[in-house]
Amino acid sequence: MPDLTVARYDVFEHTITAKVDGNPYLDVEFWGVFKHANRTIRVPGFYDGEGVFKVRLMPDIEGEWSLTTESDVAALNDQTANFTVTAARQGVHGPVSVRNKFHFGYADGTPYLPFGTTCYVWTHQTQELQAQTLKTLETAGFNKMRMCVFPKHYPYNENEPELHVYESKGDGTQDFDKPVFDAFRHFEKQVAALGDLGIEADIIIFHPYDRWGYADMSPEQDYRYLRYLVARLAAYRNVWWSLANEYDFLLNTKPMEMWDRFFQILEENDPYRHLKSIHQGNPELLYNHRRPWVDHVCIQHPDVQRTVNWRTDFGKPLVNDELQYEGDIIQTWGNITAEEVVHRFWLTMLKGGYAGHGETYSREDDVLWWAKGGVLHGQSPKRIAFMREIFEEDAKNGLTPFEEIYHSGYPWSSIAAARDGEVSYFYFGAHRPVIWSTGLPLEDGDYELDIIDTWNMTITPAKKVAAPVSVPTRHGDVVRGGEPDAAFGVELPGKPNLALRVRLRR
Amino acid sequence: MPDLTVARYDVFEHTITAKVDGNPYLDVEFWGVFKHANRTIRVPGFYDGEGVFKVRLMPDIEGEWSLTTESDVAALNDQTANFTVTAARQGVHGPVSVRNKFHFGYADGTPYLPFGTTCYVWTHQTQELQAQTLKTLETAGFNKMRMCVFPKHYPYNENEPELHVYESKGDGTQDFDKPVFDAFRHFEKQVAALGDLGIEADIIIFHPYDRWGYADMSPEQDYRYLRYLVARLAAYRNVWWSLANEYDFLLNTKPMEMWDRFFQILEENDPYRHLKSIHQGNPELLYNHRRPWVDHVCIQHPDVQRTVNWRTDFGKPLVNDELQYEGDIIQTWGNITAEEVVHRFWLTMLKGGYAGHGETYSREDDVLWWAKGGVLHGQSPKRIAFMREIFEEDAKNGLTPFEEIYHSGYPWSSIAAARDGEVSYFYFGAHRPVIWSTGLPLEDGDYELDIIDTWNMTITPAKKVAAPVSVPTRHGDVVRGGEPDAAFGVELPGKPNLALRVRLRR
């Protein structure tokens, strides 16, 4: 037996070739029992076609590991392997999970701040286009990708996929008992490629944009598909599970109790507890993300002012993956300006959530980034990347919006502000006071004060000035605006879309 | 007796000089009974100082009128006068009242669309500044003014008024049993001056910005002041009653039952039923405008997307008088850009409400338009005037937002749209589709299609194009976006802050 090694958080894979009659996708149960010292992890294996069975592990600790397989099929039972897990490769931080209630972090302790984008069916396009998408992502600055397993039928998405996920019956529909193994292998290759770029793959398991029957599989086929997907993909450290895009438009064939069961299947089969969520369509009918099997809130909503309320209501990290997209198509969710996208990103972040990007510029060739990838044409991505750098620079425990820190809602319903440790951020949007002091430190000190132009991407030192003198504003009032007086103020240039960063000099 | 004449909707005034002992402001009841044919209107008279008593009428119909006075004071009882009411002067349309549930109209049937501004205490500034304010208003394009009876103490408002409303006790407080008649005469002169400019005077009766004791008058003094104000001012056709600015910050001295009583005193004393409302401070604690004595909803709120919901909830015309002001002061309600003001005006209007303006640019001399008047420095007023022209051109019954016309909320939660008769308006804000068809007519016809650039103030014919072909968007969907397909589309230039007007060619 060769001396097998795998780096921590990479994929260990064990393969067994065995001749099994019938349809092993339907009939064969096969497990791998991995051991490290006294610890045991039992993970589902899967059939990969042509007599090949596989079981995978993402080891989370260095040292000596062993594998023993379990199956009712003799050839798949009691097979063993031993391997050594070495240190994680440079830049590999492990899977992302929830940290500090409203935030995320990698397994190695590095904070993870999602700045995601969306290319729903990029893995179903031509090889050339997929290569171009990966090349774009190398430098675009995004660290999460929403992507579907199934192909997509929708405006601007009328092409056939390169590979269907299940075998074609030849009449435009598929046989959902017969996976196309090449399709799954290809999908996981692209998930791995994203992992190599430091990008989390937010995998959309079901969706309603369908002409081939994927949305009409039987419950049994749905459950089997889900178990199979988890068995194949859970060992990839960058996997997130998004049960559906716009799950509410699938309720006609998949009632609410099925969604509960889907979440449970993820829990039963994924030993790593990758992040699980679900995405809704109707902005007024959010999924009840308080349910215990939901790890973080995924939301589609343009009114990002409500971010702090959603966060409070659900008590979990919040990602608004569709605050509407930069573009110019007729669909209203896909035609806002880059300026508005950047504005909504800053608002969302400083109200304690995280925002997601998408791009929908109409094109003769129907290659819109949001669905197919390719290249980016918009003006928001570089501003989002600039923003990501700013927040990663001082990320510690995650942002707490001022609405949660102060008793008074004013002025924080208009000026978005948040704090992480000793660093505070203010985002003024359409507000452009020429002096600001509310929410600044109550005691003077050696603060770095920086004006961030969120659109022009500049960071300029702010001038410290005396805090404006309080004048009672109303009958009976003793303090201005309900906030205690700050020790000082800052001068601002009277322009919109500015942010202010206040941090103790280190 | 001279042959008295007064034009319809102007003020008829009858004066009696009589020596009355004591304090006639407190002690004398005095009424005028006006008759036209078999119709009788009984209106309160008032004491105007130095033995002068007056009673006023705004006659609403042409013809012969008579007056007989009533009082327990003999000299004020059974006095008579006759007068002739002639046709209304050119440009005089009478008082404004509610029309078509959510809208306003003048007594002569002309639609009235409020495009108001705010100079809270302009009548308390120097004569020069007041003259300048009126001169500015001649061409500014506003047709409503929010203004306080009492002077104001607040940041940027630390000067003493030219005249106090009650006699000074010499210790910084006033004797609220002794009116300064010159102050009231001056106030009504300025109300009349606004009327001559076609501007409604939205008179703010109480407010909490006080250092002189106005906010601490006894209930008896409050009630008497209110009756006196109505007796003096109700005959001015352009009067609106705003019980308070930020009434909720006065609840410590004036509990809720007093506000009910204030409304009732207006009802009991104002024979013309001028529009009555009340303005709140806390954006989350709106006054219950469903109460029967409220004519229209006055609101202070930056989240103008909610306009259609407020309108539905209260079932009355809605005026958002403070959607935040153009300016650059530290107070968040007073530092938004002109662009944002114009944006919120369009949103408010196309969601079935009306918007109000204010301007708060910080100045060395503390002369901010919002409080003191003077000249306008901002960029929003001319865009608001441009907008007013557009909507007055086709005003008929008032706008109904598409949310109330169509069953589907999409896309009307993002694209504001409304219809008045056969004219439809769409406002795209940060959305800039290059083709639009949703909500356009279902049958083709000879439509004028105009693109309105709300910021650059241009109106350009739009190119009619084929409506985009429907592709089912989702599993089970038959129509795109839940709306029936329009007969045609329009090409748009891909810029933000555009509006589209669709009207049948006349």
Automatic annotation (TrEMBL), chains A, B:
Span of domain DUF5605? 412-503
InterPro entries for this protein: Apiosidase-like_cat_dom, DUF5060, DUF5605, GH, Ig-like_fold
Q: At the top level of its lineage, which domain of life is listed?
A: Bacteria
Leader peptide range in chain numbering: none
**Where does the record place the DUF5060 domain?**
5-71
In what residue span(s) does the Apiosidase-like catalytic domain sit? 100-363
The family database entries (PANTHER family) matched by this protein are listed as: DUF4038 DOMAIN-CONTAINING PROTEIN, LMO1036 PROTEIN
Protein name, UniProt field: DUF5060 domain-containing protein
User: What lineage does UniProt assign to this protein's organism?
Assistant: Bacteria, Pseudomonadati, Pseudomonadota, Alphaproteobacteria, Hyphomicrobiales
